[in-house]
Specification:
- By secondary structure, the chain is mainly β.
- The chain has 1 helix and 10 strands; from the N terminus they run ββαββββββββ.
- The chain has one helix at about 45; strands spanning about 15-25, 30-40, 50-55, 60, 70-80, 85-110, 115-140, 140-160, 180-190, 195-200.
- Strand 9 and strand 10 form a beta hairpin.
- The longest helix has 4 residues, at about 45.
- The protein is globular, with a radius of gyration of 22 Å.
C-alpha cells in the first residue's frame, strides 16, 4: 500500500549526547564528546517525482522508501589558549552512519542517465582538524581577525557482497578528502563597521 506523502517522514528519534571538558590549567583544556544525530532525506530524494539536470543530462527519481540516516558522532579536541586573543585546536573525529543516503544508478538511454536514491547499510567518516585563531588589536578602535582551519577526511562505505560496484569499500559519495577554510575580518569598533573575507577549498 502506498503511504500518503505526509507520512513519508513521520519518524521520531530519541537522541543522546554527552560532553566533558577537562582543564589542565588556564591555557590548556581537553574536550570529549559523543552525540547521536539524524540526517533526514531531502524532499527531492524522497518524493516519487522525476527531475532533470540538463547540464549533466541526468534524471533523478525520488525513493519513497528512503530511511533517515542515523549517525553516531565521536570527537576529541585539545585546545590551547596561549593568549587572550589566540587559540589553537587539534581535533580528532569519527562518525558511524547507518542507512547513509547515496545516488544509485538505474540505467541510461541515448539522452539521459537515470538515478534514484537509496540507503547503504553502513558507512564511516573519520579524520582530524587543525584550527587557528588570532585577533590583532591596533589601538582602541581597530581589530583584525584571522581564522584558518584544515580538515582531513577519510570515509568508507560498506556495500553488500553481491554489489556490482568494482570497489565494495569505496569512499562515501560527496565526501571530499580535505577542507580548507580561511577567514579574515576587520572591525572598526568606533563606528561598529565590520568587513569579512572568506575563502573555502575542498578537494
Amino acid at each position: 500500500r502506498l503511504r500518503p506523502l505526509v507520512e513519508l517522514l513521520d519518524e521520531q528519534y530519541d537522541l543522546f549526547s554527552l560532553a566533558s571538558t577537562y582543564r589542565f590549567n588556564q591555557q590548556w583544556q581537553l574536550r570529549l564528546g559523543y552525540g547521536d544525530t539524524v540526517s533526514w532525506p531531502e524532499t527531492f530524494e524522497i518524493v516519487p517525482r522525476t527531475f532533470t539536470d540538463f547540464e549533466t543530462l541526468e534524471q533523478f527519481s525520488g525513493n519513497r522508501e528512503l530511511q533517515p540516516a542515523e549517525i553516531e558522532n565521536y570527537d576529541v579536541r585539545l585546545e590551547w589558549y596561549p593568549g587572550e586573543d589566540q587559540s589553537i585546536t587539534l581535533a580528532w573525529y569519527s562518525k558511524d552512519l547507518t542507512n547513509a543516503i547515496e545516488n544509485t544508478f538505474l540505467g541510461e538511454s541515448e539522452e539521459y542517465q537515470y538515478y534514484t536514491f537509496d540507503n547503504v547499510s553502513s558507512a564511516s567518516v573519520d579524520g582530524w582538524e587543525l584550527d587557528l585563531r588570532q585577533v590583532f588589536s591596533f589601538g582602541a578602535s581597530h581589530e583584525l581577525f584571522v581564522q584558518a582551519s584544515y580538515t582531513d577526511i577519510n570515509s568508507e562505505v560498506e556495500l553488500p557482497a553481491n554489489t556490482l560496484e568494482y570497489d565494495p569499500n569505496r569512499p562515501l559519495q560527496g565526501q571530499p578528502d580535505y577542507l580548507i577554510n580561511l577567514q579574515l575580518g576587520y572591525d572598526h569598533i568606533a563606528t561598529q563597521q565590520q568587513f569579512t573575507v572568506v575563502y573555502n577549498r575542498r578537494g
